[in-house]
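notes to self, project folder thing:

trying the whole complex as one job this time. last attempt i did each chain seperately and stitching them together was a nightmare. two parts in total, labels are on each line so i dont mix them up again. if this works i'll redo the older ones the same way
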Amino acid sequence: GEEVAQTPKHLVRGEGQKAKLYCAPIKGHSYVFWYQQVLKNEFKFLISFQNENVFDETGMPKERFSAKCLPNSPCSLEIQATKLEDSAVYFCASSPTSGTPSSYEQYFGPGTRLTVT
Amino acid sequence: DAKTTQPPSMDCAEGRAANLPCNHSTISGNEYVYWYRQIHSQGPQYIIHGLKNNETNEMASLIITEDRKSSTLILPHATLRDTAVYYCIVTFNFGNEKLTFGTGTRLTIIP
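result (full assembly):
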């Protein structure tokens, strides 16, 4: 498709429960990114993939967070044992690139709002 | 990636040009300047990018100073739908680099 799709739109979990978010990147895009927006303006990069391989995971919390991008499946971001501080909007983005020096923008999905109670 | 500085908020009258400044004094020679915006709580939307020349597209114009230490995003005829948070991002862009968002400028278009 021509848009990044994210499901669900909203997710409510009790503290300690698992949360799983999904992202379908635009067809043909090689890179997928996950960002977390906790406060209204502050974005935090979590992880990126090149196809199904982890490209950059420098922003990923070492515990409780994991992510995958498997062939022919939506990408996923999973949070084990959610905490109140995980409440945020999680955005997925994809980018069409072969890695050559050029200028490719990232296309963002509508986000998943996770509320941990 | 180079750090950027933007004013926290600006107002602009509907129909007028909105000029949003960004300082990026530590930008390196092959880093690009990108602008994105976030309308309400939607996903960020790409607007425009440039390296050293001024750029224009159907949404906006980007003016980059000769020393590349600052830039201005221009929305030529602002409408109410342009009310959003605007982010100036400097990045070594091969398309696979993470974006480092600052706090952006909250632009409010006044009717």
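what i see at first glance: Chain B has a mean pLDDT of 94.
need to look closer tmrw
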